[in-house]
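#struct-help
A.M.: can someone run this one for me? Single chain, 365 residues.
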Amino acid sequence: MSKQKVLVGMSGGVDSSVAAALLKEQGYEVIGATLRVRPEEGENGNREDALCPVVEVEDAIKTSEKLGIRHYVFDFRDIFREKVVNYFIDEYLKGRTPNPCIVCNRYVKFAALLEKAGSMGIDYIATGHYAIVEKNENTGRYLLKKSLHSDKDQTYALYKLTQQQLGRTLMPLGSREKAHVREIARSLGLEEADRPDSQEICFIKDGGYREYISQHSEAAPKEGFFTDTEGKILGRHLGIAHYTVGQRKGLGISFGKPMFVKEIDAAANKIVLAEERLMYSPGLIAGDLNFIPYDKLDSPMEVSVKIRYNAREVPALLNPIGTDEAEVIFKEPQKAVTPGQAAVFYEDRTVVGGGTIESVYRDRF
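D.P.: on it. Structure tokens below:
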């Protein structure tokens, strides 16, 4: 009987390399794949566009050779630009704060890679994400569950995955600690064993998203006014794409007390500032929903919710509204709830689903 084949997305980092090694050990025929999604060094004559370092590809190739597996490099730059980069720029220009990793996971790392795997006659894809995919034998649906070690759990960025994607995806690191993953890499003699994790958005050099938007958008930044919550003008801003809800530093103006970005009104080109005590919201409306254990939510349910990647989960009531929106009412008001970010819902360790934060309740009930 022939082995089941799995196409492993390999970034040159320790997690994806160990995922490939573990799957080979488990008896799969493993094929490595590195995705070109960013411009190569020197493309467009601009070294600042050197956002897909050749070293990543070279490291993935070396690791594949060491593991004794085939390796391919796939050019996904067009779909990455269409689905991720354009979305990223458009959201900031609308006064919202995007999460490009969530969009990239759904449309590039999973959808496009699955399509490529299918064309090659490969059964599964795999990634180095810290999460667990399980099938509920009673319902026949695939579930997404938190990593057993919460400090590395990555389910927040995966809530958009579909049943078809989950059913053909393997995530062998979901039950392992990062320290153990590094030990495995050392035992295999992999150079990436002690390499630091990447923390930045992959296509933004040194975290300079404002400069990136200016360089890659035809819309010139338009200055406008900072106001307080009563509408009083406090000063001028440099353009709404330079700011995000919750921001305190870098406002370019001093008030003698801490002031935060509370709201960005793109239509009026206005940014509302407030003291910290006014930054708390009792709830939000989320749209573009995706549920995992079921197709839709028919009745209210108690969940825990994360409103940004590094936020702690907080208890809330989730109420369905119409066909593709839900209301989230926090048990305790939350600070700096940000339109454009994701709200992800959990029931114990299981991801119920999530959606994009469309609007925020401004006042306490």
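A.M.: thanks! The longest strand covers residues 280-291.
D.P.: also worth noting: The two ends are 63 Å apart (CA to CA).
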